[in-house]
Amino acid sequence: MIDLDFATGPMELGETRILRASGDAPFNITISCFVSDPPPRGFRPCEQCAVHTLAENQALKIVADETFWSDKTGGLLIDISDSVGVRHHVRIAIGTASGGRFTSPGLIVRTL
Fold first, then answer.
1. What is the CATH number of the domain that holds 10?
2. Residue 22 burial (C-beta neighbours within 10 Å; 0-12, 13-18, 19+)
3. pTM value?
4. Number of structural domains, the chain?
5. Is 61 helix (H, G, I), strand (E, B) or coil?
6. Residue 74 contacts by C-beta under 8 Å, 6 or more apart in sequence?
7. pLDDT tens string 27-56
8. How would residue 104 be classed by pLDDT, with cut points 50, 70 and 90?
């Protein structure tokens, strides 16, 4: 079981959010960024792209870095799995200077 304490709407440039999970800890959190397809030449993932292991209710800061996202459209995919194999996928759009949004605006959450 995974209970998330996390705002899941689109993020604005420079916005910071805290993710906390409770349930069957520990939790593996994988964060991946997605940008326009195809990615811009020389594309490198954002600093948020990483794998984290969290204890129950441990805080994980997630930032929509203004420098990275200012000229891109896209968002973050956050994959959360617990110690018994339950998974959640959260997709968050990130706003850009031009007002672009993730191709699937807002959030998609599903349990596998």
1. 2.60.40
2. middle
3. 0.76
4. 1
5. strand
6. 33, 34, 35, 36, 93, 94, 102
7. 999 998 877 666 666 666 666 788 999 999
8. very low
